[in-house]
Amino acid sequence: MSLSAILARIDDQLPTALDRLTGLLRIPSISTDPAYAAQCDAAADWLVTDLQSLGIKAQKRRTPGRPMVVGHADGPGPHLLFYGHYDVQPVDPLNLWHTDPFAPELQDTDQGKVIRARGASDDKGQLMTFVEACRAYKDVNGALPCKITFFFEGEEESGSPSLIPFMKDNAAELGADLALICDTSMVAPGVPSIASQLRGMLKDEFTIHGPRIDLHSGHYGGPALNPLREISRIIASFHDAEGRVAVDGFYEGVHEVPDDLLRQWENCGFDEHDYLSSVGMTQPHGERGYSTLVQQWARPTLEINGLWGGYQGAGTKTVIPAEAHCKITCRLVGDMDPDALRVKIRKHVEDRLSPDAKITWNQDLDGSPAAVMNINRPEFEAARQALSDEWNREAVFTGMGGSIPIAGYFKEILGLDAMLIGFAQEDDAIHSPNEKYNVQSFHKGIRSWARVLDALAK
Amino acid sequence: MSLSAILARIDDQLPTALDRLTGLLRIPSISTDPAYAAQCDAAADWLVTDLQSLGIKAQKRRTPGRPMVVGHADGPGPHLLFYGHYDVQPVDPLNLWHTDPFAPELQDTDQGKVIRARGASDDKGQLMTFVEACRAYKDVNGALPCKITFFFEGEEESGSPSLIPFMKDNAAELGADLALICDTSMVAPGVPSIASQLRGMLKDEFTIHGPRIDLHSGHYGGPALNPLREISRIIASFHDAEGRVAVDGFYEGVHEVPDDLLRQWENCGFDEHDYLSSVGMTQPHGERGYSTLVQQWARPTLEINGLWGGYQGAGTKTVIPAEAHCKITCRLVGDMDPDALRVKIRKHVEDRLSPDAKITWNQDLDGSPAAVMNINRPEFEAARQALSDEWNREAVFTGMGGSIPIAGYFKEILGLDAMLIGFAQEDDAIHSPNEKYNVQSFHKGIRSWARVLDALAK
Q1: CB pair distance less than 8 Å for B299 and A222
Q2: Is the dihedral of CA B401, B407, B411, B417 positive or negative?
Q3: Which GO MF terms are attached to this record (chains A, B) (predicted)?
């Protein structure tokens, strides 16, 4: 049967699809709180049952934490691995919710209808767009257009502790040609987006030790080395006046954005003014000479995430503290090597220490390279065309400022490129009170996947 | 009768003087803990009784907190106001004491005999050196050599909240020609010391506000202004590479140490190596070109006492925080004006803020100028000679890195210069477990005051 019949079926069945989503949203599958372990189990069971109703061989799979759901469906086309997560963020502060977070409501808003509940957007609503597209294929054609492995985890909101071991233990079973992930946003309302590059991350933390003990700033102020001044001087040395990172060799492996991609970004509907003003800024503060979007998606950063030492209480304490502490993360792009970069950053810091200052580094923090997808693979262009058709708007290969570790793990452990397609809106309030998912995101998301599957099957 | 008879009486009566001190030390007059209010009262009563036994009109005087003790003795010479405090620090951690802190013990050590108890040095032992010197005069001559007002407080270890109101309310009664304070250390063992300059203090605190809310360092890292980088850059700008404060006009009112005073300091027995190495330093870190002692006593500082923002817990949080905080104190010398300096420092900071950064200042923090005694007054040279005679060692006009607010208050409220003479040793462990006072400090301290009173009476 033709794609148009599939799409018609999706339109017809939207109310029942929303009913099903409502059922999944009623389950408070909060993964960070052990008190909700049974509810996570129930959400996994719900998905297993739903996949089985499509004729998919699905199972709940034990881990030391929350279970995985793995399902296998045979099909004619390429072998796809679809990933989503059924766990949700905690709901506090509950008093800021206008409705019960686990009693989903359809509401009319100036964006049209939305479904409001914890997990509506992140990620239950999004993962169900793919499942509903598959259901339409099943209903209309009696079969899926591709061979598909479904892979849902229940610990994404709590750091995915079981994910890597599970992927390693089941690498053969999870093998495929391409991974699909539905857990991202559209770059602007109505602009279909495929995230094709995600920044990597390097974490580090150091403590500068000065005097042997906390000192009285009267008795020792002047002669004493003050670790708070020392750490401030070192942090200040990380960047030059142009906003560039001044660590020697920091930009090795960084590539300029190709012109054609840059043109896509310039026309992707990203509203720089909205983006900046929503957080109280009037201008971008990163490397001079790069646009806000390029600073966010395609340039590396070295940020201070925590800084502390000395007295933090009310009033004054005349102390020169023995220690000062600093937490760093870098966002990585291109081919930047986190291990090599860690060495460079540590050298930069240690080269600048005063006599009598000592340093210790946290040895437990890791790093991961940027994930840059091979958008020259024909599947990427096919998917982009499919999305453009659905949204009547040229789809865009976007970057992402954040890091989605799963994309890197798919590459590293399973050897898979990942295509990240999502329909969330920036204002969906994921991780916040009153989370919602636009019914249009859900409806056109299902239609989008139907078109993408159709295109990939060819 | 001659001074020698007075000194002989002091030598004779040392055992009974130690007995008396032991009696005062048995009273756990901890002022910070309201549970010991009755014991503070008892210590005040003890002093009233002891002063009355010398024929002094002494009274316990109510305050909203712990009582003051004020006593008046007529005499022929100049009118002196002697200040000390009968309250003591808490004793915890109690498990680190080798004896009961309120069961004083005489012990033999490699420094000779010591009396070990909380308050032995700070300040009961020290204040009793003066009272015992007066007793010897009374015993031998039947009268004191000068007109003396005794003024003891019981809140010195808890911030002296009642002191300023009491001094203001009783300024006429507390008037005198010169204040004497016995609450300081000798600059080195055996080196009699008159603290003639104390650094003042300016306190300030600011918060730098960047983004409207805490931001995700992936989604905003690059374009976002990071207040932790901002505050580090500003703190780093406070000092130049030579360790000088780079705030415009900071050094206004700072004077170089006169050559003759500098020579005294160079020969005062201060052991720079001991001082530095005891806190883990190999060199002074203040302004280049000044000795450790000059950096500590006679140069101003701008120190960071607290610095914080962002995430301080275990592991990583990818946050760009909305705020960063910093607590500052400056130590002031010479004629530095705290109010004018506050304006200069705030201007320095505000001139360096990035666009989109905002700043708020704590408006509740005060400042006080340095206290520089007029050592050209003949009483200072007379006292210095008296101390030199007792210790067979040239007495030294020292500075102090810290601030003793009472010295400033005497000047400000009562119009009095203060002479700070003390016999404590750096290793007396004041505020720490196993506090002690050398019996030699006590004995020669009494003799020192006898000589000083004799000299001042002339």
Answers
A1: yes
A2: negative
A3: metal ion binding; peptidase activity
Q: How far apart are CA A347 and CA A361, in angstroms?
A: 12
CATH match for A204-254+300-368 among 3.30.70.360, 3.40.50.720, 3.90.650.10, 3.40.109.10: 3.30.70.360
8 A C-beta contact, residue B254 and residue B336: yes
What is the tens place of the pLDDT at every residue in A17-37?
A: 999 999 999 999 999 899 999
How is domain A3-198+370-457 classified at the CATH fold level? Aminopeptidase (3.40.630)
CB atoms within 10 A of CB B64: 9
Rounded CA separation A319/A308 (Å): 14
Query: pLDDT per residue over B151-194, tens digit each?
Result: 999 999 888 999 999 999 999 999 999 999 999 999 999 999 99
Distance CA B184, CA B162 (A): 22
The 3 state secondary structure assigned to A271-287 is: CHHHHHHCCCCCCCCCC
d(CA B118, CA B215): 51
Ranges in chain A annotated CATH 3.40.630.10:
3-198+370-457
CB A132 within 8 A of CB A17: yes
Q: Which of A320, A325, A319 is nearest to A305 (CA)?
A: A325
Distance separating alpha carbons of residues B297 and A106, to the nearest angstrom: 72
- Give the pairing of strands A371-372 and A193-198: antiparallel
B248, amino acid identity = D
Interface predicted TM-score (ipTM)? 0.88
Q: For residue A256, what is the DSSP state?
A: P
Contact A303 B217 (CB under 8 A): yes
The boundaries of every CATH 3.30.70.360 domain in chain A are: 204-254+300-368
Collapsing DSSP states into helix, strand and coil, what is residue A379?
helix
DSSP class of residue A399 equals E
Residue A45, C-beta contacts closer than 8 angstroms, at least 6 positions apart: A60
Where chain A has pLDDT below 70, the residues are 1
Closest CB to B219: pick one of A210, A224, A402. A402
| A302/A367 Cα distance (integer angstroms) | 13
DSSP A310: E
Q: Of B235, B239, B265, nearest to B251 (Cα)?
A: B239
Most A CBs within 10 Å: which of B281, B291, B368, as the mutation test of the A interface? B281
Say yes or no for a CB contact (<8 Å) between B238 and A222. no
Could you tell me which CATH class the domain B201-254+300-368 is placed in?
alpha beta
Locus of tokens 């090597």: A337
CA separation for the pair B339, B329 (Å, rounded):
13
Which residues of chain B form CATH 3.30.70.360? 201-254+300-368
